[in-house]
Amino acid sequence: MESEDDGERPGPIHDAAIECDVEALRSELARGVSANQRIPGNDNTPLHWLCYSDKADWAIGGAECFHVLLAAGADINAACDIFGDTPLSVAACRVHPSLQLLLEAGADVNLRPPDQLEGGPWNLTALEKVIMCRGYGARRRRAYPILLRAGSELPTAQFMQGERDRLGNGNGQGVFSEPYIEKVITAGSLANYERLHLTKLTSMFQPKFPFLPKEVIQRVVEFWSHAGDY
């Protein structure tokens, strides 16, 4: 039987998820509570809340909670109706430990939830969400190459122009500056940018090791530098 929430309060299953409490989570599921139970008013599922959790030991209890929810039928691509947030976009914006688990489990990196709220657009991919969610600071940018390597499409030109307009109109939010994404877009793909980046780094190190073949230097740089990731 489904548990009932009052107003817009999360239910016990959401509390268990955000606390990474595996036993409490199993108990709620055993009582018949859906792994996809929504919070009235914002539509967040337990999986959303698990990706919001800031527990220091998330990699222990959180990872187990993640697998318990998926085994119970949790929708890995569930989108909330407020801003179209998915577990993946939540995890990506926070560069959360759940990000890699979601990708390994097959989360859709190019999902565009329906745009159901004025003031959007909110029907954004996880990558576009990360670019837009500036409140998470510069650390969110660590998610860019992770999402791109997982197959994320590059942001649309319309989206990028919208962000320039939004942040360059004197509203005090700052100037739009995403040099990494801009470079990848200019290169046409992450693979192209990675090749250009690797070539540039190799040319920087080659004069320092004149007795080594260029191919050897390039291979060393390739393994050492994570070319294309910055």
Automatic annotation (TrEMBL):
GO terms for cellular component: cytoplasm; nucleus. Keywords: ANK repeat, Repeat. This is SOCS box domain-containing protein.
